[in-house]
Design goal:
65% of the residues lie in helices and 0% in strands. By secondary structure, it is mostly helical. Helix 2 packs antiparallel against helix 3 (100-118). It has helices at 3-42, 61-81, 100-118.
Length: 123
Amino acid sequence: MESSLFIPFVVMGAPVLIVLIVLRYRYRQTQSRYQTLLALADKGVELPPELFTEPHVVYSERRRALVLISGGLGLMATLLALPGHFDDGHSIGSLWGLGLLPLMTGLGYLASWWLNRRGGGHD
């Protein structure tokens, strides 16, 4: 593999790898929880109904918005700072627009959070 293609693959592959690791962790955590519940049920222990519900995750549009905005800006800055050129002469920095997707998504979440807050909603 050419070195000029290696860096973009690493840059674009790292977030995908992180998401896959998080999804695998959550899957294994859920499987472990259900195996524990089955083991307790096999022993005849009375299980309260609260154990069958998934843990409640606090939903925060503001936090999600800030993470996406920061990620979009970081991706744009990274692509602009990377050295190297493609075979056709274009630089890797010309891919900076890829950061616009998470940036704009984050701005949408921020607008939603702000509008919900004004309307009396929660974080």
